[in-house]
Amino acid sequence: MSLPDLNLLITLDVLLAEGSVTRAARRLRLSPSAMSRALARLRETTGDPLLVRAGRELVPTPRALELRARVAPLLGEVLAVLGPAQQLDPRQLAQTFTLRSSDGFVENFGPALLAHIGAQAPGVRLRFVQKLDRESVQLREGSIDLETGVIGSLTSPEVRTRRLFGDRFVGVVRSGHPLAQGDISAERYAAGRHVLVARRDQEAGPMDDALAALGLQRTIASIVGGFTAALALAAGSDLIATVPERHTGNLRAGMFSFALPLRMPDLTVSLMWHPRMDADPAHRWLRGCVVDACAARINAG
């Protein structure tokens, strides 16, 4: 069995990134004719033209577009295996990382994470951006480094994940709310007016399915895009907010929280990143910081 020349991976990666034989040759310090021969070998090996002429430009084929998303992380793994182990000194890092997360995560885990990073790498800056959906496009494109949240149907299967902590939904009302007194049954919970946290065009949540199984229905008076807004409305009115407990610990200060009187599945909050960053020492260090900071925050209560 003949094995393909693994050096072609490097050539393929550069050709697909540059989209030009001339530029790829310059980058790899080869002559244009040598790069043309390498492209011919790649075409023969893959059974696809990969780059075809359109006017004065070369455009990628569908097969090339598919390979472009796979070859960079694959090449990174190969180079990491064959190269010497890199010793990272976080104190020498001068870099900005971008973490996409909910406001609740920033509020409850952000300070511990920043303290953890600052103690090891004072030159590192962490940019938090809001999580407005559960799609993985930004991880794939590289515009964000990490993401936290619940893995869902919109999470790309290529994304790497690591469990951070478990969470559960709780009900929250203002201090002095009628639900703050006495036992809270499913009927009392359903009879109140509620604020729903939802993205896109949702008009119901998992709590509504659980209530429907009991033959109950709640009144949703308001729909908001995040936990912070839901708790702000609940704090200044008689609305009931239903939010993840650990994700909103600091946000619920001064309010009355209660266990839901209906069976709801627990949540698993995970850390997500693109596989091309698996072997990057700085990225691996950052992932460890997030894991350690979350664990420390939860253990501290």
| Count of helical stretches | 10
Q: What is the H-and-E element order?
A: HHHEEHEHEHEEEHEHEHEEEH
Shape: elongated
Q: How widely separated are the two ends?
A: 59 Å
Q: Residue-averaged pLDDT, rounded? A: 88
Radius of gyration of CA atoms, rounded to a whole number: 25 Å
Structural class: alpha/beta
- Give helix % range: 40-55%
Beta-strand segment tally: 12
Low-pLDDT stretches are none
Largest sheet: 5 strands, mixed
Q: Tell me the fraction of residues in β-strands, as a range.
A: 15-25%
Question: How would you describe this protein?
Answer:
By secondary structure, this protein is α/β, with parallel strands linked by helices. Helix content is 40%, strand content 22%. It has helices at residues 7-18, 21-28, 32-46, 62-82, 103-120, 137-141, 186-191, 206-213, 227-235, 281-299; strands at residues 51-54, 57-60, 95-101, 124-130, 146-150, 160-167, 169-173, 193-197, 219-224, 240-244, 256-259, 267-273. It has a five-stranded mixed β-sheet with strand order 4-3-5-12-6, covered by helices on one side. Strands 9-8-10-7-11 form a five-stranded mixed β-sheet. It has a two-stranded antiparallel sheet with strand order 1-2. Strand 1 (51-54) and strand 2 form a beta hairpin. Helix 1 packs across helix 2, helix 1 (7-18) crosses helix 4 (62-82) and helix 5 (103-120) crosses helix 10 (281-299). It is elongated, with a radius of gyration of 25 Å. The N and C termini lie far apart (59 Å).
Secondary-structure topology with pairs:
Layout: H1 7-18, H2 21-28, H3 32-46, E1 51-54, E2 57-60, H4 62-82, E3 95-101, H5 103-120, E4 124-130, H6 137-141, E5 146-150, E6 160-167, E7 169-173, H7 186-191, E8 193-197, H8 206-213, E9 219-224, H9 227-235, E10 240-244, E11 256-259, E12 267-273, H10 281-299
Parallel strand pairs: 3-4, 3-5, 8-9, 8-10
Antiparallel strand pairs: 1-2, 5-12, 6-12, 7-10, 7-11
